[in-house]
Backbone:
């Protein structure tokens, strides 16, 4: 697995690009949380994908706060990908203009037209846990409310079919704003709930210690280092 991270917008949000070679989908890439606010930010992502000869096949959202969704229309215009989002965060996405006004962020992409409307979202995420089958990966989606009602984490398990030692390889967790290096997401924004977040963190603490965590802001870490 190859992971490339791009830091975007005034909030220094992390957009992750996951890729690997699959016989069924050569050079497939998965975009997680494209927060590119201006075309120059998205150009860096597009240039990387082009130079690496990667073909984006999915755009996964960990939640719908404004800093994580600013690049949705770029991805839709360029790659025709509708985003995945837990339905509990749909109301937060619908309030994107209000979120933007609160933080003083303009919502006009300089290479496109209006930011909204963008849905329908891909209806592939539901309940407390589900599994997405994308680009040769079985991606476990863990519903981890607290930072927002529909916050999720994406757990990429080692691919045993391609690696006989996969069981010794760490899983990769993309945690959005649920878990950071030495921290966790705030709960004073729309839909935040401290009790729910603590319960979600308790659930993540049960993952294997060697699980590598790529958060929505800041540096990567491991489950062992955080719990």
Residues:
């Amino acid at each position: 697995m190859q992971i490339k991270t791009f830091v975007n917008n005034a909030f220094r949000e992390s957009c992750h690009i996951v890729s690997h070679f699959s016989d069924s989908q050569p050079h497939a890439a998965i975009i997680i949380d494209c927060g590119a606010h201006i075309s120059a930010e998205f150009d860096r992502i597009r240039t990387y994908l082009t130079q690496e000869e990667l073909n984006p096949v999915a755009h996964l959202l960990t939640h719908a706060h404004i800093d994580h969704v600013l690049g949705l229309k770029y991805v839709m215009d360029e790659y025709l990908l509708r985003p995945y989002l837990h339905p509990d965060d749909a109301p937060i996405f619908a309030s994107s203009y209000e979120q933007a006004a609160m933080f003083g962020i303009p919502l006009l992409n300089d290479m496109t037209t209006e930011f909204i409307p963008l849905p329908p979202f891909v209806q592939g995420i539901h309940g407390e846990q589900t599994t997405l089958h994308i680009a040769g990966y079985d991606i476990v989606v863990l519903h981890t409310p607290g930072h927002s009602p529909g916050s999720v984490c994406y757990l990429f398990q080692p691919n045993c079919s391609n690696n006989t030692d996969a069981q010794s390889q760490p899983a990769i967790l993309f945690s959005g704003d649920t878990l950071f290096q030495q921290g966790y997401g705030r709960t004073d924004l729309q839909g935040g709930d401290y009790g729910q977040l603590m319960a979600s963190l308790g659930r993540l603490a049960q993952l294997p210690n060697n699980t590598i965590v790529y958060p929505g802001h800041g540096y990567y870490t491991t489950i062992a280092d955080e719990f």
Observations:
- The two ends are 25 Å apart (CA to CA).
- The chain has a mean pLDDT of 89.
- The chain has seven helices and 13 strands.
- Residues 205 and 227 are 6 Å apart (CA to CA).
